[in-house]
Amino acid sequence: MEALTSFFIQLWGYSWIRALSTLILFVSISQIVHGSMKFYLQKIKKLQEGKTNEKIITKSDKPIAILIILTGLKISLRYLDYDLHLIQKILSSALIVIGIYLIIVAIDIIIDRWIYKFKKKAGGSYEDEGLNLIKNIINIFLGGIAIILVLNAWHVAIGPLLTSLGILGIAVGFAMQRTLSNIVGGVALVLDKCFRINDLVKLETGEVGRIAEVGLRSTKIVTVDNEMMIVPNSQLSNTMIINYAKPNNILRIKVPIAAAYGSDPDEVMKVVLDKVQKLKTVLPEPKPQARFTGMGDFSLDFELLFYIEDYKDRFTARTDVLKSVYKKMNKAGIKIPFPTRTLYLEQKEEVKKKRVRKK
């Protein structure tokens, strides 16, 4: 036994044996990892679950195996008493490239999963092209890091290059300032859950429309006149928005009503409420209300308030209420006023004297 141990110690003293053993060890590890990932991939395929895990394994299986083998090769070459700096640099460059590739794969899969969740929050419509642009920008950034690391492995001075890239980055940042603000605004709108696709909104400027699409740079709104309105996300995120679909679809409608002077305010409100409460389009709860709001130039002014179940029926409900109220007021003998004006004509004394002389 001691002779066998002595033999192995003596054998391990050879540099090429240590290098070969290390390489065989890392190759074995790579095969074990490759087999484990392949087994797990078949398992999740049978279960028809874990699409994200399936993508990760499919795209990273071989690169990880190669990464492990190259790492073992790099370590094993250190045991050899030869000048292998060139090969070491090549292996370092390959390891950097494969490592960055694996990071890019992981980020792409994470962003793809984020897109899926993002679409669900946005109501099912979101521009994939915009988010793919983000992926491309990240990939370019990581590719730049890979180039810098490879140059550093080859002992190339990267100070001037970093300075140039910094200046370029500042220039690009200024050039894309509005675009970036729109992107951030779009992300903020969706994460804040301000609205979903097909929600009816009213902007601070007065436009009313349905959310058609939430884009990376802008949001598309279809107005009630069937016109497409494109609003930059940075502007939309900094303005006041009324969402008729939140907190629910129930909507309160206000209808102004006028009665002639001389009408009994209590009778007017009673007649109006009795009729409105019988309409199917009006919700019984919360109860409709009638208010005496003031005495105008030629009329007594009232305001009728009632709730409907769905804001999409607001025009139909308003029309039904107005027709019913008009007919009921006519039947009850309540006069509906119209604008009147009294004109006073003043004649000057000279005009009066001339008329008297002519007579």
Description:
This protein has 3 domains: 17-179; 191-243, SH3 type barrels (Roll), CATH 2.30.30; 251-331, Alpha-Beta Plaits, CATH 3.30.70.100. It has 11 helices and 8 strands. It has helices at residues 2-12, 15-47, 51-77, 85-122, 128-153, 159-175, 177-191, 233-236, 265-276, 314-331, 349-358; strands at 200-203, 208-214, 218-223, 228-232, 241-243, 251-259, 289-295, 300-308. It has a 5-stranded antiparallel sheet with strand order 4-3-2-1-5. Strands 6-8-7 form a 3-stranded antiparallel sheet, covered by helices on one side. Strand 3 and strand 4 (228-232) form a beta hairpin. The protein is elongated, with a radius of gyration of 39 Å. 14% of the residues are buried.
Task: Considering the chains and any ligands shown, give keywords for the structure.
single chain, 359 residues, alpha+beta, SH3 type barrels, Alpha-Beta Plaits, 3 domains, 5-stranded antiparallel sheet, 3-stranded antiparallel sheet, 11 helices, 14% strand
